Amino acid sequence: MIHVDWACDPMVGLDAATVLVASLRAAGLPSGLVATSIPGGLSQNLICEAARVISPAAISGPDRLLVLSGQTATDTHFASLRRLAGSGIGGCVVSGRFDIRQAEIGIRAKFGYVLGKEPEVLALLDEDETLLASSIAPVFGVDRARAPDADGRLRVLLIAPSLEAGKGNAAFQALSVSRKLQVTILTDGAGKTTLRGSGVPLPVYHYGEVPLRALVARTDVAVFCQPVARSYAMRMMLADCALSGVALLDASTGFLNRKRDPAFIPAPSDPAALAGFLVAEVRPDVGDLARISRGSALARQSQETLAALRRALGERLTGIADLSADGNATLARPRVPASHEATAPESRVVFMPTNGVGLGHAQRCALVADKLAQGPVTPAFAAFPSCMRLIKSYGFDVMPLVPKSGLHAEPFANDVVNTVRLDHLLGTAAAFVFDGGHVFTSVFRNILEWRVPSVWIRRGLWQSGQDNSVALDREKAFDRVIVPLEAFSELNEDYSHGAHIVRVGPIVQQIDLSQSERGAIRQGLAARYGRSFEHLVVTMLGGGVAADRSAQTIAVAASLARRSDALHLVVVWPTATIDPGLYSWPNTRVVRTHHASVLAAAADLYISAVGYNSFHEAMYNRIPTIFVPQMAQYMDDQRSRAAAAVERDLARLVEPQDLLTLDRTIARMLDAGEAEAMRSRLHQIDLPASGAAAAAACIADLAKLGAAVPTDEPVRRIA
Amino acid sequence: MTRRPSLALVLDPRFGGGTSSAVAREILALAPDFDLRVAFIESGMFRGGRAVHPRIVDALEETGIGAAWDPPVIQAETIVLHNPSFLKFDTSLKSRLNCARAVVVAHENFLKPDGTEGFDVGKTLAIIAARLPPCPRTIAPVSRYNRRTVAAWLSGPGAGTEGWDIAPVEWFNICDFALLPPTASPRDRRGRVSRAGFEKFPDMATMLRHFPPHADHCAILGADTFLLPGVKPPPHWALVPFGGAEVATFLTAIDFFVYFTHPNLRESFGRVVAEAIASGKIVITDPGTAETFGNAVIPSDGHDLDQIIAGFIAAPDRYRAFVTAAQQGLAAFSADAFRTMVCRYLQVETRVGELT
Question: Which regions of A505-563 does DSSP assign to beta strands (E)?
């Protein structure tokens, strides 16, 4: 195991060390960051990246220590190294820039005094001497095994183009609509803001947003619009490009990169001219350009640097080679459980539903996964605790994720842990499916890092005025976006465009109860609660995070308490918090269950929030319903959804504050025959076909796992 | 009246340790016999101005000798350049050296115990040689151990072609400290003094063995590396940073001076050892460092300290006898002995008494 530490500025060093460790692992050298050297106050991007590559264990035995920027080591750092080395290490390599021999002698001696043995010193080249140099760490590349674009487009990474407001927008607009080019822009934070503000629909990343190596894997041509920056990450990316056969174009003013290294091909700096140049001059010869890159002096130098690092680490001597023996050690992390390995991880599709107000995301994923499981696919889940029982009830394995908590030191602390957990799952996944409105950083980075075929199930009907720009910006990481449509067409709206958008019918759990099954359920409830009833009313108003629905629920309970012919079930998820006062109402019982759909299907009247799942289950399972919308700022537009059904006379809508209206509406529904009339109308309408099978087929196709088995059969449940 | 031969002492006077103290004593010792000049070099080794070591300032005041920083020419029949390692970060020497004979006093070991260079010796000697006329040039070691490292370096592949030879004498440190009587009732009170620096200390396990909890007192002067943030030294250690106490005062609190460095560092002379002896302490140190002082110190591999110390505590008379004999042995490093050595080596007639 190679433990990587750094002596320079903690932030700068960590930034470089994370890049280095990831590349060492990719090069087959098990390695990790020294955890105690990671400073506090990191950005979410940086800490998520660091968390993935922290050394899994303390330094010991034959381990190696690799210290970056050794020339900047201070006594404080030496003191920490003395603690770190403890009872001894297998060896130490110090990389650094030493202007004079004495500097190297001095550093070698100091490290020797602290660690007990003198280190190998890896003297770094001057950053001005070569483009593959850094004063912090050795610069080398790894072949990122680029796969060709499925659509035959030339994938162009435009690095640091001039993005002054208003300038060049037309040219970038032209690039965005090219069918022969797929252009991605890499720039700084201000540049990204400018470009996104211009409305140009090009995917754009800022430098710290994702590991640059992840972009190399998706690039055929890298166009450097400025002199190659001195940052370690950028220089490592350049080395990756050379090793990976990415064509290197120099569009800098005066061709400054070309002057420093002949591996660069001169290119126009004007984006308008660049588009034509890429199509006419580069695209036809991109194969030759890839060979030029791979055979360049840059590529050779990169390989020599890595070889020198391997020699310095003495990997053939002891320790490191041992860890490589099992073929999985490059990741330097716990092995996948044996039971999972036995189920051919290459066929595993990982689902991750977010935890919304209810369990709609988890329910939807489970429905799609269930379809996939009928084919040659093994679904597995990463899910928050509130969703786990529901998912397990379908028979799927679940890796728990950590939800947000006010007790965490940082608001994103949970997502750091989730980054690591997803990292462990996605390395062997055939595909990854995320269902949620906000694409977490953990999701975004892991998709790009692992290049796993990825799908975003993105439900629509966002409220007007909602700012979903961050979520939409991260759409660029996904290969497909599956949009489960609303049952009523006026509710469907496009938030983004492209061939990657796949629209499917509403994904909804259909409960096909026969009259006898419905009767049996109702009899069972009567027996369970020791009372007969004529009307079964099920209330499921949600609540929790979004809003307190106690008043509305109690209003329903009070309304039904006056009757002798009704059983009122307040159905909540098992994890919900219940107002104790509910238990005192006659005729009302509280049911904690994941099987709300079955109870609702057996009801005479359903009083529900208007989430996507609740609404569509009411429609598809033909349940007379009074909708009480929840309209938290971050939620979908429940009122519009309910209104669409009301306009068709397929439901009633009561605003949360209209408690008296709620009472009267319940009475009309139960006593004036409105509910049964509504049920008849519900049975008469045509609804779009369920989209679960289509979604499953899309995922299976993307993962190249063969067609799933589409079926309209009701889904199975094991609990 | 015979003319006094001229001799120029050249050094960077900002060394914080033994070099400056040794040169300060040399100024006082050599002034009677030589037309003594002193030149300071502002090397790249030290930053932060031209603060001269206070003992050198005192010596110059006492002798009335002036000193100049980086004079264009340093001229004397003999130029003695102390501790060439101060030039290890430089590429040249500003002052031209105009002399008939040059002596470079090594001060630091040219090689470490593992055989690697202690500093960039070749470069520093080349810098000096580039400013010398074609004259005899010798390297004077400060001890027998130091001699061996110089000789090994001169016979190695790194040696240049500037014609350096090794002097037949040891240009030792003058150790004429005031002698204090040993205690009549020694206890297990251990301590050590050194510059701060990781090289001055063995690893933590060894340090714990040398300064164990069962000792009555454990005190370390120069313990800066144990006082750094995040370090958790044993609570029974009394730690004082370098410069945090007068050495003489610090030594009054101990009876046994336990001095071991990192195994890959060897003291070239061990001036602090002599200071401890003069203060009436029994010194226990590694055999290499002990070599300079002969029977005046107790050589040890560091594993038998408890037995050695317990033996002396049980026999106070033996303690006193050992210290007294050791202090007598320091006469070999007196100012007179030094002056005698220098005059004989430079073939100069001394004006102060007879050569001893």
Answer: 535-540
Whole-model pTM: value is 0.84
State in words which class domain B189-332 has.
alpha beta
CB of A83 within 8 Å of a chain B CB? The answer is yes
Same domain, A696 and A672: no
State the residue range of the domain holding A544.
Answer: 515-684
- Write out residues 258-277 of B within 8 Å (CB-CB) of A: 262, 264-265
What pLDDT is recorded for position A329?
40
pLDDT score for A177: 84
> What span, in angstroms and rounded, lies between the C-alpha atoms of B289 and A205?
62
Residues A167, A63 within the same domain: no
B118 contact A CB<8A: yes
**DSSP three-state, residue A56:** coil
> How far apart (Å, rounded) are the C-alpha atoms in residues A637 and A629?
9
- Tell whether A670 and A698 lie within a shared domain: no
Low-confidence ranges of chain A (pLDDT < 50): 316-343, 708, 712-719
Domain match, A521 and A626 both: yes
Put simply, the answer to whether B112 touches A109 (Cβ < 8 Å) is: yes
- Of the two residues A465 and B112, the one the predictor is more confident about is B112
- Report CB contact under 8 Å: A80, B230: yes
Q: Which CATH class is domain B6-174+335-346?
A: alpha beta
Q: A187 - beta bridge partners?
A: A206
The neighbouring-strand residues paired with B98 are B75
| CB-CB under 8 Å, A80 with B118 | no
B114 Cβ under 8 Å from any chain A Cβ = yes
* Shortest CA gap A113–chain B (Å): 5
pLDDT at A715: 40
Q: Given an 8 Å threshold on Cβ–Cβ distance, is B198 in contact with A113?
A: yes
B162-199 per-position pLDDT tens digit: 789 999 999 999 998 999 999 999 999 999 999 899 99
A235, A354, A691 from A504: Cα distances, Å: 43, 20, 5
CA distance B352 to chain A (A): 42
Chain A residue with minimal CA distance to B202?
A: A113
Q: Which of A76, A102, A106 sits opposite B123 (nearest CB)?
A: A102
Task: State residue A150's pLDDT score.
Answer: 74
Q: Which tokens go with B202?
A: 């063995």
Cross-chain Cβ contact B229/A76 below 8 Å: yes
* B119 shares contact with chain A (CB less than 8 Å): yes
pLDDT per position as a tens digit, B298-323: 999 999 999 999 999 999 999 999 99
Separation between Cα atoms, residue A703 and residue B220, nearest integer Å: 66
In this structure, which amino acid lies at residue A425?
L
Which chain B residue has its CA at the smallest distance from A83's CA?
Answer: B231
**Residues A311, A142, A145, A452: what is their CA dihedral angle, to the nearest 10 degrees?**
110
Which CATH number do you get for residue A484? 3.40.50.2000
Kindly indicate the confidence band of residue B255, based on its pLDDT and cuts at 50, 70 and 90.
very high
A438 near B CB under 8 A: no
| Residue A483 sits in the same domain as residue A526 | no
What local confidence, expressed as pLDDT, does residue B284 receive? 98
Q: Which pLDDT does position B329 carry in this prediction?
A: 94
Query: Residue A278 carries which DSSP code?
Result: I
Q: Other C-beta atoms within 10 Å of A335: how many?
A: 12
Q: What is the pLDDT of residues A43-64, one digit of tens each?
A: 888 899 999 999 988 888 889 9
Q: Cβ of A102 under 8 Å from any chain B Cβ?
A: yes
> Which chain A residues have a beta carbon less than 8 Å from that of B89?
100, 102-103
Q: For residue A56, what pLDDT is reported? A: 86
Identify whether the C-beta of residue B336 lies closer than 8 Å to the C-beta of residue B350.
Answer: no
Q: If we measure between CA atoms, which residue out of A486, A615, A476 comes closest to residue A542? A: A615
What sign does the CA torsion over A444, A462, A489, A544 have? positive
Taking an 8 Å cut-off on Cβ atoms, the answer to whether A102 and B224 are in contact is no
